[in-house]
C-alpha cells in the first residue's frame, strides 16, 4: 500500500506530517462537536441522567453489600411500601427494592453496552462490506441483512436464547446477534453514498486495496452516523435485555431491572398493589433509555444540520 | 394605471439578531401586455422581489413599500383576498419544474385544481375541456392530462407549468428562470411558447433570468439587479447593446450571441463573487469587482438616475452621460 | 391554438427490452420472490438452529423435565436419522416434525389453532386504534413543526417510546384493575372474559370488550408513539418540497395544501415503515398477553419457554415469521398500487 510521503518533522506547534494534520483536524472537529452538543438542552439532560445511573451502577457495592440481596438475610417485611428504612419499599421476600435497583443497574447497563458493541461491530462490518463489494458477495450480504430484518425480533431472540441457554454471556450474544441488521442497512446506504465520491476513485487508482479503502476512507466518513446510531442502539439493547429477563431468559445469577420485574410479576406484586416494587425498576429503565434517545437525537441534530429528518 | 407596480419595495430577512436586506428600495412597473425582464446573479434579490407579488415571501421576511397589482396593494390585503387573487390575477411559473408538480397526482387534476378553486361552480366536464385546451396551447396533446409527472420529460413538465399558470386567465405571469434547468434546444422551444402566448393573450410578463441574451430577445424592457437594488433599467435592446453600468456590461458579455461579431473580443467573466446581502461593501456594492472603479465609488452609493429612457446607478456612467 | 406540435416519440414508448412484463408485473414478481426466499431461509434457519448447536439435542427437549422414557426413545430415534433425511421430513411438514408438543402431548398445530383468534383480536384492535390516532398526531405535529402541539406531543411520544410495553401494562393494571390509594380498581385483572360468560352472545361480546380495554390501551399507546414519530418525519420531509409552494401559489388554504398534497405523499413512506415495524407489534403481543393473561399465541410462547417445549417454540417462531413476511409482502404490493411512480 503506498504511504503518503512524510515531510521532515519540525519542532513547534505547526503540524507538518500528513498524519499530524489529520489528527489536528479531527481534534478541532471533535471540540467543535462537543461545544455544539453542550448547547443542546435535551442532549445535556440525557447525558446528566446517564452519568447519574452509571455512577449508581459503579458505586452500588459500596452502598449495598452483596449480602443485602440475599433473600435468606432479608430484614424487611415482604411487600412493604416505601418507608424511611426502605426508601423504595421491599420485594416479596423483604429485600430492599432500592438495593435491588442499584445492583440491577450494573447488569442492565453492562448488557446494554456490551450487546450494542457486538451488534455495531457486526452491523458496521456487514454494512460496509455489503456496500463496498458489488456482485455476488455484496449481494449475498445484502440479502442476508434483508432476511434478518424481516424476522420479528422477539420470537428470534426467544428461540436463540432457548438454544443457547441462560447466562450473562449468552444474553449479550442473543441481543447483539438479533440487532445488527438495522445498523447494517443504514451503514450500507451511507457506504454507497460515500463510495460515489470522487476521492475514493482516486484512492483506488493509486492502488488502494479493498480493506484499506474500507477502513481508511469509508469508515471515517461513516463514523458520525455510526455514532448517532450507537446511542439509539443502546436504548434498544437495554429494552431488549429488560424484556428477555422479564420472560425468564436472562442471566439467572445476577439482578437486572428486567429480572426484578420478572420476580415481581411472578410473585403477584400486581394483586398486592405493590406499585413501588414494579414501578422503581421500570422508571429506571425508562429514564436510562430516554437518556440514550435524547443524546442520540442531539447527536443526529448536529450531524444532520438540515434537521428535517426530525 | 400600470398592471404591476413595485413602489420603493424593500425586503429584509430577520435571522438570529442580524437583519439581512435582500431587496433595497426597488421601484419597477409593468403595463398590461408588456414584458419586463429582471436579470442578475443568484442572491441579487430577484426571486425575493417577485415573491411579494403573490405575497409568498417567507415568514421571516419583512416588506416595506407597496406592491400594487391593478392598483391594489397586495401587501395590505386581507388573507382571504390574497388567496383569491393568487393565480386568478397573477400566477407564477416556478424555477425547476422538476419538483414543482405533485408526484402522485395526475397532470389533469393539477391543472384543473386552480380552475375549480377559483370558479367553484364549474362542472367537471367544463374543467376537463379547459384543461385540454390549456395543454394544446402549450403544444401538448390533450390526452396527456392522464399522465403523472414522472412520465413527462423536463421540457414537457415546464410546459405543463406554463399551461397551469394560464389556467385562470391571469393578467400577469411571473416566470422565474423557467428555462434554466433545460437543455438548449428545449429552452428555445419553451421560450417560443412563452413569447407567443404573451403576444396573443396580452398578459403582462415578468421574466427572471441570469441570461441577459435570453431576456433581450424575449422582453420589452430589462432591469438588472445587483445586491438587492436595480442598477440598470431600460428598453431591452438598449440595455443589452449599450449597457451603461459595468455590471450590466459584464452580464451582457457573459452570454454571447453566436454570429454577432461584437462578442469576438468581449472579455469573459468577472472576478470575485456577488456580495452576501448581510455584508455589503461600502458605497457602491459593486466596486470591489468593477473594472471601471474610481476612488469615490467606495464612498457613495449611486442613485438610479435616468438618462432618457435608460436608467443606471453608476457614478462613472452618469458622469459620462452628462458630458455627452 | 396549437403553437407547437410535440416533437419526437413518447418517452415511455422507448421502453427497455426487459421482456414482456410491464413494470408493475415485474415489481410484483420481484417482491413475491423475495418473500418466498425469506420464508425458505427462515424454515432452514429454524431447522438447523436446533441441530447444529453444541451438545446433545435431546438435552434441549428434556431439560428440566421428567420425560417418559418411551418418548425419549422416540425422540432419539427421530434425531438419530441422518441429517439430510431429517431435513427432508421437516420440509415436508415443518409444523409437526413428527414430534408432538412435548408439554401438551398433542400435535403442535392443534395446540396453536385455538390461540390464533384472541391474538388477532388483541393485536388487530390495538393496531387499528394506534394507526388512526398515531397518524393524526404525526400529521399535526409535523405540519407545524416546533409549535407547542409538536413540542408536547414529541416529548410525550419520546417518553412512551422509551417504555417497555409490558411494564406500562403492569402499572396500568395496578392503577386501574387493582386500585391504588383512594382509587378503586374497576377493570378486570386479566383474561379475555369472565368465567362462565357465554362469549357468543352480545352480552358476551361486551364482556370481552370490557376485558380488552386495558390490554388494548396499553398496546395502542405504545404503538402509536412509534407511528406518530414515523408520520411526523414523513410530513416534515414533504414540507420542504416545491410542489407545496405551487399549491399555495394557486390560492389553496393551508389546510387544503396539507390534506390534498402533503398527506398523500407522506402516507407512502409511512405505510411502508409501519409494516416494516410489524416485528415490533409481534413482540408487544407476546409480552402483553403474558401480563394480561390472554389466551393467545403470545402467552403460549411464554408458556413454551418454561420447558422448553422445543417443537412448539419452533412452530411458533415459524408462524410469527411467516406472518410478518406476508404482511411485508402485502405492504410492498399495496405501496406499488398506491404510488404511481411504481405502478406506471
Described by the principal axes of the CA atoms, the overall outline of chain C is flat
Radius of gyration of chain B: 21 Å
Helix content of chain C: over 70%
Q: How are strands sequenced across the largest beta sheet of chain C?
A: 1-2
Q: Averaging pLDDT over every residue of chain C, what do you get?
A: 80
CATH level-3 fold name of the largest domain in chain B: Rossmann fold
As laid out across the biggest beta sheet of chain B, the strand order is 6-7-8-3-9-10-12-11
Helix share bin of chain B: 25-40%
Task: Throw out a few tags for this protein.
heterotrimer, B: 324 residues, alpha/beta, Rossmann fold, 2 domains, eight-stranded mixed β-sheet, 12 strands, 31% helix, globular, C: 344 residues, mainly alpha, two-stranded antiparallel ribbon, flat, disordered N terminus
Molecular structure report:
- The complex is a heterotrimer of chains A (310), B (324) and C (344).
- Chain A contains eleven helices and no strands.
- With 310 residues, chain A is an all-alpha fold.
- Chain A has one domain (51-307): MetI-like (MetI-like fold, Orthogonal Bundle), CATH 1.10.3720.10.
- In chain A, helix 3 packs parallel to helix 11 (275-303) and helix 6 packs antiparallel against helix 8.
- Chain A is elongated.
- Chain B is of the alpha/beta class.
- Chain B has two domains: 4-89 and 177-275, P-loop containing nucleotide triphosphate hydrolases (Rossmann fold), CATH 3.40.50.300; 102-169, no CATH class.
- Chain B is 31% helix and 23% strand.
- Chain B has helices at 46-51, 79-85, 107-118, 124-137, 154-166, 184-201, 212-218, 236-241, 246-254, 315-323, and strands at 4-15, 18-30, 35-39, 61-69, 72-73, 90-93, 172-176, 204-209, 221-226, 229-235, 305-307, 310-312.
- In chain B, a hairpin with a 2-residue loop joins strand 11 (305-307) and strand 12.
- Chain B is globular and about 65 Å long.
- The longest helix of chain C has 38 residues, at 202-239.
- A two-stranded antiparallel ribbon of chain C has the order 1-2.
- Chain C has helices at 23-52, 57-62, 69-80, 83-92, 108-112, 116-143, 148-161, 165-178, 202-239, 242-249, 254-276, 278-291, 297-305, 310-338, 340-343; strands at residues 179-180, 183-184.
- In chain C, helix 8 (165-178) crosses helix 9 (202-239) and helix 12 packs across helix 13.
- With 344 residues, chain C is mainly α.
- Chain C is 71% helix and 1% strand.
- At the A-C interface, helix 4, helix 5, helix 8, helix 9 and helix 11 of A face helix 1, helix 7, helix 8, strand 1 and helix 9 of C.
Amino acid at each position: 500500500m503506498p504511504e503518503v510521503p512524510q515531510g521532515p518533522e519540525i519542532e513547534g506547534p505547526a503540524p507538518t506530517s500528513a498524519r499530524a494534520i489529520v489528527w489536528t483536524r479531527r481534534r478541532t472537529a471533535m471540540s467543535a462537536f462537543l461545544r455544539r452538543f453542550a448547547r443542546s438542552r435535551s442532549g445535556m439532560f440525557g447525558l446528566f441522567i446517564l452519568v447519574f445511573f452509571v455512577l449508581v451502577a459503579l458505586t452500588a457495592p459500596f452502598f449495598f453489600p452483596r449480602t443485602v440481596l440475599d433473600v435468606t438475610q432479608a430484614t424487611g417485611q415482604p411487600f412493604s411500601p416505601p418507608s424511611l428504612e426502605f426508601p423504595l419499599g421491599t420485594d416479596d421476600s423483604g429485600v430492599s427494592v432500592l438495593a435491588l435497583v442499584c445492583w440491577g443497574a450494573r447488569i442492565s447497563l453492562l448488557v446494554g453496552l456490551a450487546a450494542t458493541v457486538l451488534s455495531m461491530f457486526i452491523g458496521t462490518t456487514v454494512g460496509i462490506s455489503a456496500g463496498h463489494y458489488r456482485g455476488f458477495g455484496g449481494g449475498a450480504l445484502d440479502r442476508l441483512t434483508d432476511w434478518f430484518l424481516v424476522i420479528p425480533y422477539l420470537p428470534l431472540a426467544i428461540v436463540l436464547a432457548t438454544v443457547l441457554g441462560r447466562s450473562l454471556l449468552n444474553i449479550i450474544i442473543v441481543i447483539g446477534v438479533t440487532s445488527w441488521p438495522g445498523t447494517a442497512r443504514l451503514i450500507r446506504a451511507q457506504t454507497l453514498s460515500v463510495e460515489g465520491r470522487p476521492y475514493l476513485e482516486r484512492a483506488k487508482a493509486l492502488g488502494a486495496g479493498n480493506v484499506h479503502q474500507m477502513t481508511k476512507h469509508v469508515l471515517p466518513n461513516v463514523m458520525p452516523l455510526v455514532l448517532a446510531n450507537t446511542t439509539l442502539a443502546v436504548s434498544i439493547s437495554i429494552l431488549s435485555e429488560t424484556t428477555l429477563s422479564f420472560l425468564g431468559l436472562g442471566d439467572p445469577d445476577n439482578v437486572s431491572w428486567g429480572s426484578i420485574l420478572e420476580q415481581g410479576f411472578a410473585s403477584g406484586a400486581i394483586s398486592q398493589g405493590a406499585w413501588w416494587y414494579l414501578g422503581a425498576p421500570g422508571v429506571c429503565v425508562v429514564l436510562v433509555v430516554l437518556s440514550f434517545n435524547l443524546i442520540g437525537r442531539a447527536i443526529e441534530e448536529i450531524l444532520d444540520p438540515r434537521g428535517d429528518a426530525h | 394605471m400600470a398592471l404591476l407596480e413595485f413602489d420603493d419595495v424593500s425586503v429584509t430577512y430577520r435571522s438570529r439578531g442580524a437583519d439581512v436586506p435582500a431587496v433595497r428600495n426597488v421601484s419597477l412597473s409593468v403595463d398590461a401586455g408588456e414584458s419586463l425582464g429582471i436579470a442578475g446573479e443568484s442572491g441579487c434579490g430577484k426571486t425575493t422581489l417577485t415573491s411579494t407579488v403573490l405575497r409568498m415571501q417567507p415568514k421571516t421576511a419583512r416588506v416595506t413599500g407597496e406592491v400594487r397589482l391593478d392598483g391594489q396593494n397586495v401587501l395590505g390585503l386581507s388573507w382571504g383576498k390574497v388567496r383569491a387573487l393568487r393565480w386568478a390575477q397573477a400566477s407564477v411559473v416556478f424555477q425547476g419544474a422538476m419538483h414543482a408538480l405533485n408526484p402522485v397526482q395526475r397532470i389533469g387534476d393539477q391543472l384543473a385544481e386552480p380552475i375549480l378553486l377559483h370558479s367553484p361552480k364549474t362542472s367537471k366536464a367544463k374543467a376537463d375541456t379547459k384543461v385540454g385546451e390549456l395543454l394544446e396551447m402549450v403544444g401538448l396533446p390533450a390526452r396527456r392530462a392522464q399522465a403523472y409527472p414522472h412520465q413527462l420529460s423536463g421540457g414537457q413538465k415546464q410546459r405543463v407549468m406554463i399551461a397551469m399558470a394560464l389556467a385562470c386567465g391571469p393578467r400577469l405571469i411571473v416566470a422565474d428562470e423557467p428555462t434554466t434547468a433545460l437543455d438548449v434546444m428545449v429552452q428555445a422551444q419553451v421560450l417560443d411558447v412563452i413569447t407567443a402566448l404573451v403576444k396573443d393573450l396580452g398578459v403582462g410578463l415578468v421574466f427572471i433570468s441570469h441570461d441577459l441574451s435570453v431576456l433581450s430577445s424575449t422582453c420589452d424592457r430589462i432591469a438588472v439587479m445587483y445586491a438587492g437594488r436595480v442598477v440598470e433599467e431600460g428598453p431591452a435592446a438598449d440595455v443589452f447593446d449599450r449597457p451603461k453600468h459595468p455590471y450590466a456590461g459584464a452580464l451582457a458579455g457573459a452570454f454571447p450571441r453566436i454570429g454577432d461579431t461584437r462578442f469576438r473580443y468581449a472579455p469573459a467573466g468577472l472576478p470575485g463573487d456577488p456580495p452576501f446581502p448581510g455584508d455589503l461593501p461600502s458605497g457602491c456594492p459593486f466596486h470591489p469587482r468593477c473594472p471601471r472603479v474610481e476612488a469615490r465609488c467606495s464612498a457613495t452609493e449611486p442613485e438610479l438616475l435616468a438618462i432618457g429612457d435608460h436608467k443606471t446607478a453608476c457614478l462613472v456612467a452618469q458622469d459620462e452621460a452628462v458630458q455627452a | 391554438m396549437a403553437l407547437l406540435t410535440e416533437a419526437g416519440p413518447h418517452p415511455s414508448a422507448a421502453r427497455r427490452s426487459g421482456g414482456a412484463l410491464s413494470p408493475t408485473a415485474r415489481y410484483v414478481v420481484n417482491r413475491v420472490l423475495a418473500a418466498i426466499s425469506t420464508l425458505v431461509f427462515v424454515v432452514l434457519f429454524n431447522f438447523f438452529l436446533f441441530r447444529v448447536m453444541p451438545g446433545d439435542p435431546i438435552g434441549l427437549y428434556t431439560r428440566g423435565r421428567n420425560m417418559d422414557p418411551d418418548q425419549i426413545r422416540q425422540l432419539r430415534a427421530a434425531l438419530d436419522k441422518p441429517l439430510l433425511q431429517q431435513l427432508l421430513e421437516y420440509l415436508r411438514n415443518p409444523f409437526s416434525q413428527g414430534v408432538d408438543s412435548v408439554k401438551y402431548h398433542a400435535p403442535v398445530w392443534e395446540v396453536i389453532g385455538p390461540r390464533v383468534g384472541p391474538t388477532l383480536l388483541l393485536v388487530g384492535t390495538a393496531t387499528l386504534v394506534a394507526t388512526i390516532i398515531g397518524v393524526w398526531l404525526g400529521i399535526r405535529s409535523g405540519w407545524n413543526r416546533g409549535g407547542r402541539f409538536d413540542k408536547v406531543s414529541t416529548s410525550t411520544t419520546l417518553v412512551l417510546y422509551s417504555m417497555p410495553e409490558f411494564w406500562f401494562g403492569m402499572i396500568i393494571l395496578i392503577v386501574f384493575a387493582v386500585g391504588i390509594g383512594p382509587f378503586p380498581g374497576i377493570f378486570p385483572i386479566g383474561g379475555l372474559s369472565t368465567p362462565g360468560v357465554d362469549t357468543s352472545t352480545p352480552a358476551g361480546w361486551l364482556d370481552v370488550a370490557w376485558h380488552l380495554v386495558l390490554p388494548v390501551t396499553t398496546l395502542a399507546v405504545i404503538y402509536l408513539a412509534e407511528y406518530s414519530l414515523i408520520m411526523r418525519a414523513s410530513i416534515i420531509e414533504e414540507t420542504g418540497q416545491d410542489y407545496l409552494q405551487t399549491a399555495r401559489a394557486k390560492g389553496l388554504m393551508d389546510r387544503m395544501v396539507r390534506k390534498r398534497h402533503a398527506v398523500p405523499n407522506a402516507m407512502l413512506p409511512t405505510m411502508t415503515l409501519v409494516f416494516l415495524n410489524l416485528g415490533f407489534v409481534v413482540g408487544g403481543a407476546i409480552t402483553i398477553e403474558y401480563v394480561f393473561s390472554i389466551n393467545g399465541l403470545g402467552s403460549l410462547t411464554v408458556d413454551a419457554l418454561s420447558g422448553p417445549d422445543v417443537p412448539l417454540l419452533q412452530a411458533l417462531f415459524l408462524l410469527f415469521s411467516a406472518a410478518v413476511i406476508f404482511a411485508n409482502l402485502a405492504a410492498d404490493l399495496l405501496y406499488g398500487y398506491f404510488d404511481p411512480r411504481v405502478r406506471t
